[in-house]
Amino acid sequence: MSRLPVLSTKDAGPFAKLVYRIARRRYGAIPEPFAVTAHHTGLLAATAIHELAVEKASRTLPVNVREIAVYRVAVRLGCSWCVDFGTMLQKHDGLDIERLKHIDDYATSPHFSRQERLAIAYADAMTATPATVTDEQVAELEREFGRKGVLELTYQIALENQRSRINSALGITDQGFTSGAACRVPLPGLA
């Protein structure tokens, strides 16, 4: 249970109810971070708009590279909600989620491509406190993904740091998106 209660549908205002309805349709359940943030309508609106804009703008990197970097941040920061939700998103993107068991051995594991290894190492360097990103690392990422790709990867990693830290601070834990315990999210095209 989170440190702040979720805002029930009956107690939610019109905007939160709209967000809940869209989330339920899209994910099969209301993500708990939304239901906690709904206590502050302005931040719920800002979060929803921001997340949709970032999703729409993030088209430079291959989806597997973006998702594995975001997943790595969640693992490093111990955000079980983000790990759960991120696994579900990767499954829906058709990615191999069994390989996620090998994330800690990414540098030598055959389950990860060179591009994914670069992105995971960058996620580790950005998530470290203090950050340990090097000029050489960014130069190699630019050669691999171009400037737009580096910016997209950096933004996605920073955003997941924010999400994971908010969820951890508020005690928001996994919701069962991958196990089906909390909700059963249909694969795209099957709903």
Automatic annotation (TrEMBL):
Gene Ontology MF terms: peroxiredoxin activity
Family matches, as InterPro entries: AhpD-like, CMD-like
Domain Carboxymuconolactone decarboxylase-like, residue spans: 55-124
Pfam families in alphabetical order: CMD
Highest taxon of source: Bacteria
Transmembrane regions listed in the UniProt entry: none
Name of the protein described by the UniProt record: Carboxymuconolactone decarboxylase family protein
Organism whose genome encodes this protein: Amycolatopsis acidiphila
Highest classification ranks of the organism: Bacteria, Bacillati, Actinomycetota, Actinomycetes, Pseudonocardiales
